[in-house]
Fold each of these.
Amino acid sequence: MRRKPIIALIYDFDGTLSPGNMQEFGFIQAIGQTPEEFWSKSDGIAKGQDASNILAYMKLMFDEAHANGIRLTREGFKRYGKDIKLFDGVRDWFRLVNEYGERHGVRIEHYINSSGLKEIIEGSPIAREFKHIFAGTFIYDEKGEAEWPGIAVDYTAKTQFLFKIQKGIFSSRDAKRVNESMADENKRIPFTHMIYFGDGDTDVPSMKIVNMFGGNAIAVFNPEDPRKRGVAQKLLRQGRVNFITPAVYTRESRTFRVVCAIIDRIKADNELKLLARYK
């Protein structure tokens, strides 16, 4: 029996599936700050120390939590995730795409590739929809409290995770198998079967790689934010992405039409490759 081709839909989270940064839906309020205050402090740490923006915000979360008597635990992060706001249609999006794939003879898998925190995403209403979540994490002590950054996901790490998805590796720490040579026919999901969704700077290298190797990259933007639309249009002009679309995920949305058309093309290309093997 011929195996169904697998198509991977890979999403950034903040600004892509959610209109805000995940820290803004509970944590920042718990430490008594506004998002503007928190991110200004985080940027100040990164600039002042010439440090990673990702490690800077993780340090600031750690420091502010301790200063306000808040325990940073996995379960605490998951509770923050329950209140994350999502773009219109996101909750039903995965079912819609899965059903379309099933009707058209392909298998759909969804992945997160985020510079945010894995534990917060795991607490979100859509966590169960993903085959795997690649995102930042803390290291936890014997009491279950965060004590040090474990994984900080910048744009370089995001590109590495694409190659892990390609080879079917679901360990963030693996640095051996991901670099081993593998014949194209043995790769679980080729780049041509990837659809990458992103909205900002940390997504650009991943978008470029997916695009360069024959996949499809989509820049989404908050339809209520003209500046975000301008960013998406710039990415399209620069050839970083194949499509742009408002971050609306309903059945009637442009996003759904674009993804369905890409699925149709991937399925057709796969059929043509099989026909070309006739001897």
Note: The longest helix spans residues 254-276.
Amino acid sequence: MRSVPKVDNEAFYLSALKAHGETAQGVHWNSVESQEVRFRVLCSLLPEDLPDLRIVDAGCGFGDLYCYMVREGAPPADYIGLDVMEPMVATARARTGCEIRVCNILEDTLPEADVYLCSGAMNNMTREESQAFIERCLAASRRGFIFNLLKGWNTSTLYNLYLPREIRRLAQTLAVDYQILEGYLAEDFTTAFWKRKEATG
């Protein structure tokens, strides 16, 4: 039995887009500064051979993560953005000049990549949805999946909150190596799940 979604994601994001336009607030971040703190931490976990890698940004929004990577002088060799919201996809295509696809991560076929990234796209999902999201992105990656989550007890009716120890248990269940970074923002943590060599061949 599927769990009931926390929110209507389309209405949630379209209302922010209407109110704030193509900005960090338009994808429900508090500010550009907090958004870019999360980007910096995500990118710190990427492999050193990033210039040779294909990266998929799951829930890419307006393509802000790719634009941040370009500004920092560290874009990947190949970037694909995926988002379920068509207005965001159109903006991301124009901003990045990259391949951006309309895609429901939970239902559609996912492109193969070396590493999947996700910043914020699981913040309104149920536990069932977020675990499926993680497992599908991990399966479509050759090396691993780097993602952030909101930190806290699972008591919110709107947001999807996790404790780092819950993600450690999930890593053990999925038999992956993991890294968890905390302390950069009080309400957030970032995780990398890496496939083990015997699993990737």
Note: The two ends are 35 Å apart (CA to CA).
Amino acid sequence: MKYIEFIDKLIQELTPLFPNDTSIVFEQIEKNNGILWDAILIRERNQNYSPTIYTRPYYRQYSDGTAISELVTDIYQIYQQSRVKPPIDFGSILCADEIRKHLSIQLVNGEKNAARLKNCPHIRYLDLAILFFCRIPINGQTDGTFPVRYEHLKLWDLSEDELKELAFRNMIENYPIELLPIQDLLKQIMETDPELPDLFPPNFFDRDTLFYVLSNTSRRYGASAILYPGVLEQFARQINRSFYLIPSSIHEMLLLPDNDSYSADDLSQMLSDVNSTQLPETEILSYNIYHYSMKDKAISQITDH
């Protein structure tokens, strides 16, 4: 069965499971870096929030032999677990006064998001761009996000300067920075995955720290932590030297003391390998390496890819 036929069949099988006035539609959802993800959106009449069911993974399962009936059951269960009761009062959340609490920032690739930047307030930064977005609490455990567009500023009667001030203030207050030696972060990860130690060489965790991981306490969109006032200058003072910044994803930045252990070319190749083999396209931040000069107290882009 071809992919589009598979989508039609999924919707056909899902439809009888819901009330007659339920909307079940196939859409392409724009993600970071201009990537489009295929999805099914299910919305009952009294629901104003629809969990997004991405379809490509289900087609892979079908291609591997899983029956459509099993996939339909799985989608239905996910929907029931994710749906919000009672419906979200978006009217109150998105009013001009309330929205100010939910504004924040995200650091993204400038070139890959060029189309989106045309419609969204932003600040260019190196080869990157600072985007503004809203985090809307959904069920107390997760939240939904959407980028702020120029049309929103008109709706909220908000100037770009006010947007920037509020978003940066919220970021600093609500998502404090988290700076950890990479060994400490890996130890935390290993607490939930005991098989990970086999991936590291002997005595790895006894070595002096090479890399530091800079993010925020939510570890979501944490690469923007490099924008917090004074954070780069303070880190340089802490290690008493300049350092490299490696954009390992939109969620964190790796900091490496400049002690002549690596060249810019070495780091660029390392980053290229990670981007091409380890990261989803939607989480890639850049292919370039940056450098913070302790003397000049400034960050610069030192590669150009």
Note: The chain has a mean pLDDT of 86.
Amino acid sequence: MLKADKSFWSNPPWGDGKQKYRLGLIPIAKEEWLNRKIGDSLFKHKKDFLDNNYQEVIAVTQSSLEAQNILEEYLRVDKREYPDLIADMSLVIQDDLCLIKSNGDQELIAASVCSPSYWNVQSKIGRPLREIHKPVTTLNEKIGDRIETFIRQAPIMKPFSRQNWLIHGDTNRFYTREETLPKTDPSDWFIRSEKETLCRFHEDYSLFTINVVFQPLSLIHNHPEQKKNLITSINTLDAEEIDYFGGEKKVRLLQKYLLP
């Protein structure tokens, strides 16, 4: 049973609810950048994939070797077990890791993603950020240019953070495709939040991290203001965002469950 996370509910990822997809990056101290030590359960989840389904969660390009070695200065690995350094580094921290070129087309050059939210790391490796975000056209239109400019101009070793969110029928971490409509009642659904950081740690390279956490949706009723803002956010979704979110029927079920 998941416990209520006070910090989550004091500052939920949908904010004031005015817009689901926003850049929303805020600066954080360097000490808060890579400080999330991995627990036993998440370590087991990652290691099971690395040992048994390596190609499903790890993808690298030859041009990423320098970037991986530089990143290891910040995520020290005591013992190498896997062909790619980013795989070993991913066991040091809760977060999934995505290495991106800071300049040019800003390709994804290496990744360890054991908790994907509707994407497949093998289909994205080597591709520019703009192509990676292409499936949700309106996402590119709303924040695509700003993401590219931000990464290109970001100060070195100044990390930033943001939160994204979806609503799922379970706490399964591995979703390479959109979840089908849950057969359960929304009272049994979960908010799936991605706590993300972005840091240009070298002139040529940036690290994007993703830490997935869950909270029971039912807890929303204990937070009237946050519920009102969540309703507002869901109501602002456009047609493409609704499809990505899970479809019109899922949205209608949520609206019915959340409204007084």
Note: The radius of gyration is 18 Å.
